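Much of what follows relies on a compact textual record of a protein's fold. A complete example follows; check for yourself that the lines match position by position.
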Amino acid sequence: MSDSNNPYGGGYGGQMTAQARFSEAPAAAAGASHVKDTTTAGFAKDVMEESRRQPVLVDFWAPWCGPCKQLAPVIEKVVNEAGGRVKLVKLNIDDHPSIPGQLGIQSIPAVVAFVDGRPVDGFMGAVPESQVRQFIDRIAGPDAGDAGAAEIEGALEEARTLLAEGAVQEAAQLFGAVLQADPQNAGAYAGMAECMIAANQHARASELLANAPEELANDPAVQAVRKKLELYEEARKLGDPAALEHALALNPDDHESRMKLAKIRNVEGKRDEAADHLLLIMKRDRTFDDDGGRRQLLEFFDAWGPKDPATIAARRKLSSILFS
């Protein structure tokens, strides 16, 4: 959700997903506030360094943004109730535009989670309190007393691992078992669609997502699978990869051909190669297609998911380019 007067509105690729770290929450005094404002100069200390101790959520906002005013009391309440499992840092994008510009923040409110000095997950819009709690649980781990949630999350992790290893049928069975226990579990719903894609049943996956319950349709996991299907459909129309390779051999700075080839390699499952093409575009020409290499790479991250090795490797390379 973005305000109608939002100058950053438009082409941001959707919600981000990335690796979450599950650990014990640091001890904190009862009633202590875990919310603070930061600046461009203070960002490295307040966010990058602090996120090495516990996850830090950065709320990108502006005074004119109506949804920002709706989200602020909700997220501050939930963060403080989390008792130090995460911290919240707020950045006014009007006063400090450079950091959101580097991270591709084009619609607010936007919340980005940092872990170990890197952006790893996020959401946009004035989401309900329940979704904010789910987001914090995904980043910092569920409350220790929530054994049922921990069991379900463990089953989801096992299913995702099986899927990554190519055991599609076994993964689908686990995702199905989770859905029997929790029919509104967005991760399991998205996982079933991922299994269909892995089995080359793209039409079935599209149908499943089209019929997703309204309360799941905007979940980051479901949106990530939807983005993956969009990338698949787009890549089918891009032409012969051999011809694109030949064009690049003749002119390595043919960024348009390199972009097309990256999209094709992604659909072929050659994610490291796809990411390297986009990173090379970034290194050679950030002005190409208005920093199109970075924007496309962020879309790939959305589609690949948090724990894919290609996401982890490419995100590190991207961070070194952005923050070196």
